[in-house]
Structure formats: C-alpha cells, structure tokens
Design brief:
Shape: elongated
Oligomer: single chain
Number of helices: 28
Distance between the termini: 49 Å
Largest sheet: 6 strands, antiparallel
Radius of gyration: 49 Å
CATH class of the largest domain: Alpha Beta
CATH superfamily of the largest domain: GAF domain
C-alpha cells in the first residue's frame, strides 16, 4: 500500500525535524521540509504531496496563509494549518483558504494523527462529491430531454440546454422565477389535474406523468410536449425540490395524426359500401390533417374530353361536369403530374396560354392525378379562396397517398363490376345450357345443378344438394363403374364415357358423361360434370344395328352396310387418343367416309370446318353430291359433302340411296359430338395451362416466381449428384429502390422492375434462370458455373443495369444492383448456399452497394 506523502512547511528547523520524526513513526512518507512560503510554492508541483502541514507564521515575505492560497491556485491538495496562535483574526484569514484542519502548537502524536486522517478522509469525500456533481451536470446536459429543477416554492433552480431550446428561454433569464410563469401549459380535459402541481410544486408527492400537452414558448409559438414532474424528497419524506422532465413531441404528434388519418383512409377503402360513401369518409379523415373545405374528385372521359365531378364540396362553385380543355384540372390529367399552384403561378400559366381559368379563382390550389396502372383517370384536389399559405409540399405527398387509395378503390370497383358481369355470363351459360350440368365438391357431394339436369333426372337442387352424385344416379352394376370414374377424376383426370344413369322415377337414361376436375393453384377445388341424354341416339344406333341385321339378308348390300357401321366406329376409334387434334380427326375421316360409300373408287369427300377445307385426293366437285351440316352446341360449325365423280342412278335421290343419306347424317352427328368433346377438352387444357403458368410466373415481370425458382434449384441439385457439375446462385437487390417508389411513385417502381427483368434476361445465357425472388430482389440460377464464371456474369449484369437510363417526369436516373454470389458444393445444402449468397449481398450493401460479392468475401 502506498504511504501518504506529507510536505512540512515550518521555519523553525527543530520543530520541523521533530514533526518529521513523529510523522515517520506514524508510517507517513515525507515529501520534504520547506522553511518559507516561497520555497513551498516552488516545489509543490514537483513533489506532489498528498497533504501539507503549513505553519501560519513563516519567515520571508509571505506567511503560511498566503502561501496556501498560492499553492491552491496550482494544485488541489489538502492543507492543515499549524500555529501557536488562535486569535480570531488569524482564524478568519485561515478560513478563506478552506483548510482541512487547524492544529494548535504544541501538539502530541495522537492529535497530529487524528488531524491528518480527518483531513485526508474529508479530502477524499469532497473529491467524490465534486466528481458526482460533474457527472450529474454532464449527464443533464447530454440527455435529449429538457430538465427544469425548482425549489419547494416553485422557483427555477436549473434548466439544461435542451430545456432552454424547447421553451425558448435561457437559464440566466428565468433563474429564480416561478415555474408556472415560464412553463405555460394550455390546460384541457387530459391535463387539467396538473395545474395544481405547476402552480405549487410542493404538492408534488410522487412522479406524475404529463400527457401530450401544448405549451407556449417565449416567442408565442405552440409546441406539444410530454414527460413527468417528480419530487426530490428528504429522508423524512418532505419535498425539498421538484424536477420536471419533458420532451418536444410536436413532430411526432403531427406524424401520428397524419399516420392515423392515412390509416383511416386506407381502412375506408375496404369499409365503404359504395364510391360515394368512400369519398365522404376520405374527406372526413383527410380534414383531420389538411383543410378540405374545398375538396373535389374529378373523373376524366377521354372520348368526350369531359371532366365529371362525382364528389365536390366547395364554398364558391357547384360544378357537376365541365370540358377538360385547358382547365387546371385538365392540365394535371394530361401532363400526369401533381401541382401546387398559388395565385401568381395560376396567372402566369393563364398568360402563357397553358390553362384557362374557369369558376372562382383560388388563392392556392393543390391537385394530384388519379392513376390506374399507367392511365390517369382523374384528379383529387383541394383549394383555398383565402389563405395562400394553407398547403405545403408535405400536403402534396399526403394527397398523392389519398389519390393512390382512391385509384385502388375505383380499380376494385371496376374489377368487381367486371366480375359480376363474368359471373352473370357463367350463370346464364350454366343455367341455360342444353346439357345437364352439375357441380360437385371433392367428396362428390352436389353443390349446384341446372334446369336441364332437373329435366333429365327429375331432381331439384333442394332434393339433391349435399347428396353424393353416384348414390343419387347409379344402380346395380353401374355403381362400380361410377366409383372408378370418380376415383380417376379425383386424381386430376378428365373422363369422358357413355353409360346409364337413373331418373328419380326409376327410369334408366342413356347418357354421355364428361367429368372435369376444376384445378386452382395446383389443388382440385371441385368437379364439373356434363350429362347429355343420348337416349334418342342410342335408339338410332339400335335401329341402325337392326337395319344392319336386315341388310345381312341381302348379299348385295351386306358389305356396304358393314362399311357404313365401320365408318362410324372407325371415326370413333380415331378419337380414342385424347391428344389427337380436330384437324387430324377431320383429315383421317375423309378416307374412312369415302370407303364407306357404295362406289368408293369414284367417291369424293369435302369437309368445310370454319375457314378450312379438307378434301380427298380425287376431289373434283360434280352435280352428284349431297351435304349435311355438322352441328355442335346447337351451332353449325361446318359441312360435309359426299359426291360421285360419275352418275349412278339409285332408287332414292339421284345417285344416292336412303341408307347413304342416313349415314351422312349419322356421320355429321358423330363429328358434331366429337367436336363438342374436343372443344370441351381443348378449353379445359387451355385453362389448366394458364393456371399452371400463373402458379409459376411473377405477374409483374413475367419471370419465374420463387416457387418455380426453388424447383429448378432442386433439379440442379439432383443433376449435381449425377454429374458433379457446379452451379451458382446469385441474389440481386436493387439499391435504394424505396427512394424510386417514394420519389416517382409505384408505377415508376414497377417500370424499373420490369426493365431490369428484361435486361437480365437478355444478358444471361440460355440455360440460366432469372426469377423474381421477392420485392426488389431477383435470383439468378447459373447451371454449370464455377465461382469465377459466376462473378464474371454477375459483373456483366451489374454494369448493364447501371448503364440503363430511366426518365421519370423529365428526371433521368440510373439504377444499381448489389449482387451476392454462392456456389453449391457437396458439403452445403441449398438453404446454406442461398443464405451465403444473401450474406454476401448484404456485405456488398454495407460496403457501398453497386458491387458483386461472393462467399469467399465472407471468409476475408
């Protein structure tokens, strides 16, 4: 332990030596002995004593009290005066230097020890007190809250810098003044209980919260503050002082008010039952933050160049519509930009011929375009006829947000109208279809059926709802067939068959059945069933068979009749392949039909289908032919013509027999049924293809979406297991993309995304995949690519993107990408590879953006 170092200042050398001996016996160290005040002043900085024993009466020009005063100007050290004198004048002079002790000569060893130890302890305590005071002062000046302390009567004792800035008063101006005379709160129902505390701070007994309240600063401006006022208590619990802690929340409160209003406006889009109610709600909530005494919504009809006002609240004008022409509203619509127009700018635009003033001129006009995608459909505007400073650019941004919400609502309304029309079309097609149609869920329970279904099977929707279709319509041996059909459809197959189902009255009905699963986003929602009553056709087929039996009795016609039947069945055989096209069916049917006629070598066939003609090779139209319309869905889709190159008179009409005429009708009917089936199958295939494409495509950029990208990555992982060929994953993020949306609008942001998507697709190789990963992020999958190759391609993309120039409302900007790259290895999972690419991306963001970083940079 270091000994206390004592400096002795004593002009009597014997006394000084004696004191030195005593101090050493008490285990103190001696810094030195000075015989004069001048000597002590010179060596104190060098010796740095822990304590000075100073004799008051010294030889020389100055005494001990004067020497002590000079020493304390240089260093901070405890001093004990030692003297034989204790007169009042000496004591008074000594007190001025604030000594740490006063020892009267002569003194004994114990008195000296006690005096020194008390002085040292007092010095240590005072040092700690000064440090704490300095720490408190620094803390109070450093915190972001304002602080005011008062005595128990409310007189101001202290104000920190932040407090001065908020109230506008300096500490020197308000020191000692009553708190309530400076800190002027405007009281209301939320803070009226605080008045008693500010008028008499001795009433503050516990910390009391101050809710957001308005105060008046020195310059008369109002500010919103919150905070607390708390008592400083003695040990007895009595209030001796009070401390007021407060902060300026004016900006935060205003932002909160704006946020709440915009939130309410967003909710109004979903809550309003109609557009008129939405306009009213928007005006109501917008009025909380912007003056809307004069507010209108204008919609533009481009065909007539007319502006209508579906909603207007105005102190001066009561327009319902007017020509767009050169009006200020029309100017905003046609130039597609928001405008804040004061009286001066309005007159300048009028003088230049840019606009023509209609209605009452305003002091200040603020209007923003209503946009749906890239089309401007109208304007939202507010104006003032009195105050030219009522609106600011901040209000312009708020109104642009409101415009966006209105555009969404109008777009939704139009979409809803379109959906209602589409649903009406569907309902009409469903209900008025000549076929019996039923909609069942995945458990085969009936959800919906049309009138034709009721006529065909006798069941109403009330009787059939929620019942299983097979239990309702099948009997006996057909139950197993129906079950197998249901199983196939449940697996996603489209099933077409002819079978028998039963009427409610127990009568069997011959039907052709088309069962189609309704697929959405990879999952089956329900099943669409079409039943056609083919009883008449079945009877016709039976009659045909009967006639065939009769023809067997006549040898001459036997082969011809077999040909006729073979014709129908061979045409049916063509369509057994579900992938065969209608074009192939018609082309293959030509030869089959020609061979089925009585004189096949001189028979020609022509089928007209839409705008196409299909003919046999020997086609040469003569006067000996007959035709039959091909009908599907009660519409003539084509005609079939069969003729002879030479005349062969028969018993019926010209060269043709009655059987051949019947066969032609049967062929036309069969082709019509085939056409109906193929059309239904083609529509179904097209719908399924569209649904699959939508499920794997980003709707904005038309790139692969996240789901499709992950499946392709999994495929590359499997290929790596077979061939060990590496592949790279790069994640690209648009730098500062939010600023594009904030500055130019989301339509401009969407344009950036689509342009960058196209740029990257044109830059990568054929085997590479560019996908929309989410938000402003893209993912590149680079097969058969090592780290070096991946970096080269990524740099190429980065430079290509950065060189692309965008022009938004006349402002030219460049967009940059930060790219993170990682290589898939045997020791890593797909998730780890993606994470490393993501980490490299964010390293690039931290290092300044517009760069390419790889997994190797993470190790560095």
């Amino acid at each position: 332990m270091t000994k206390t170092n004592v400096l002795i200042v004593e002009d009597e050398i014997i006394v000084a030596k004696n004191t030195e001996t005593v101090l050493k016996s008490l285990d103190y160290s001696i810094a030195g002995i000075c015989i004069s005040g001048e000597q002590a002043i010179r060596i104190v900085a060098e010796k740095k004593p822990d304590l000075i024993l100073m004799d008051i009466v010294l030889g020389g020009d100055i005494d001990g009290i004067q020497a002590a005063a000079e020493i304390l100007k240089q260093v901070e050290v405890p001093i004990i005066f030692v003297t034989s004198y204790s007169d009042e004048d000496t004591l008074k002079r000594a007190k001025e230097t604030a000594p740490y002790g006063y020892i009267i000569k002569p003194f004994n060893k114990k008195e000296l020890l006690v005096g020194i130890e008390i002085a040292l302890e007092r010095y240590i305590l005072e040092q700690k007190l000064r440090e704490n005071e300095q720490l408190l002062q620094t803390t109070l000046q450093s915190i972001s809250d304002g602080i005011i302390t008062t005595d128990k009567k409310g007189h101001i004792l202290y104000v920190n810098n932040v407090g001065e800035e908020i109230i506008g008063w300096s500490y020197q101006d308000i020191k000692g003044k009553l708190l309530y005379s400076i800190f002027k709160i405007i009281y209301d129902d939320t803070n009226k209980d605080l008045r008693k505390f500010f008028e008499n701070t001795s009433r503050v007994k516990k910390p009391t919260k101050i809710p957001p309240s308005t105060i008046l600063a020195k310059d008369g401006s109002s500010k919103i503050i919150d905070g607390s006022i708390s008592p400083i208590l003695e040990i007895s619990g009595k209030t001796t002082r009070s401390v007021l802690v407060f902060r300026d929340v004016t900006a935060a409160q205003k932002a909160l008010k704006v946020q709440n209003a915009l939130y309410n406006i967003s909710n109004a889009v979903n809550k309003a039952d109609n557009i008129r109610e939405l306009f009213q709600l928007i005006q109501k909530h917008l009025d909380e933050i912007i003056d809307t005494k004069n507010f209108y919504v204008a919609l533009y009809d481009k065909k007539t160049d007319t502006i209508s006002l579906p909603y207007i609240v105005d102190e001066e004008d009561k327009f319902t519509s007017f020509p767009a022409g050169k009006t200020l509203t029309g100017y905003v619509i046609k130039h597609k930009k928001s405008m804040l127009v004061d009286e001066k700018l309005l007159q300048e635009m009028n003088v230049k011929g840019l606009i023509e003033i209609i209605g009452s001129p305003s002091k200040l006009w603020l209007g923003v375009p209503l946009r749906i995608e890239k089309e401007v459909i109208g304007v939202v505007a507010v104006q003032s006829y009195e105050d030219e400073n009522l609106y600011t650019k901040d209000d312009l941004e708020i109104l642009e947000f409101v415009s966006g919400q209105l555009a969404i609502a109008i777009s939704h309304k139009r979409a809803e109208d379109a959906q209602r029309i589409e649903r009406a079309y569907f309902e009409q097609l469903f209900e008025n279809s000549p076929e019996a149609i039923v909609l069942v869920n995945n458990e085969s329970r009936i959800l919906k059926l049309n009138e034709k279904f009721t006529k065909t099977f006798g069941y109403t929707i009330e009787e059939a709802r929620n019942k299983k279709i097979d239990e309702l319509l099948t009997r006996g041996e057909y139950e197993k067939e129906a079950k197998n059909t249901t199983t196939k459809i449940a697996k996603g197959e489209t099933v077409a068959l002819e079978s028998i189902r039963w009427h409610k009255n127990g009568t069997p009905v011959d039907v052709s059945i088309l069962g189609t699963p309704i697929i959405f986003e990879g999952g089956q929602l329900a099943v669409y069933g079409i039943y056609r009553d083919i009883s008449d056709r079945k009877i016709a087929e039976e009659n045909l068979k009967q006639r065939t039996e009769d023809l067997k009795q006549r040898t001459e016609d036997l082969n011809q009749r077999v040909k006729e039947l073979n014709c129908l069945y061979r045409i049916s055989d063509i369509v057994e392949d579900p992938e065969i096209s209608m074009d192939t069916i018609l082309q293959d049917s030509l030869k089959i039909i020609a061979q089925s006629w009585k004189y096949p070598k001189i028979t020609y066939v022509k089928i007209i289908w839409g705008d196409k003609e299909y003919t046999t090779e020997n086609y040469n139209e003569t006067d000996w032919y007959m035709t039959q319309n091909i009908i599907a869905y009660n519409q003539v889709l084509g005609t079939i013509q069969v003729g002879y190159l030479e005349e062969h008179p028969e018993d019926f009409i010209g060269p043709f027999s009655e059987e051949e005429s019947n066969l032609l009708r049967a062929i036309a009917d069969q082709l019509g049924r085939i056409a109906e089936r193929k059309l239904a199958e083609d529509e179904l295939k097209e719908a399924n293809i569209k649904l699959k494409l939508l499920a794997r495509t980003d709707p904005l950029t038309q790139l692969s979406n996240r789901r499709d990208a992950l499946e392709k990555i999994e495929y590359e992982e499997k290929r790596y297991e077979r061939s060990e060929k590496p592949f790279a994953i790069a994640i690209c993020d648009i730098d500062d993309f939010k600023s594009v949306n904030d500055r130019f609008g989301h339509e401009s942001g969407d344009e950036v995304l689509k342009t960058l998507a196209n740029t990257m697709c044109m830059t990568v190789r054929k085997q590479d995949t560019v996908s929309r990963w989410g938000g402003e992020e893209f993912l590149l999958l680079l097969p058969q690519t090592d780290l070096e190759g991946g970096i080269v391609l990524a740099e190429k993309i980065r430079k290509k993107v950065h060189s692309t120039e965008f022009n938004f409302d006349g402002v030219k900007i460049h967009i940059s990408l930060t790219i993170g790259l990682s290589i898939y290895k045997e020791s890593k999972t797909i998730e780890e590879t993606i994470n490393q690419a993501d980490q490299a991306l964010y390293m690039g963001k931290k290092l300044g953006k517009n760069c390419v970083k790889s997994e190797t940079d993470l190790v560095k």
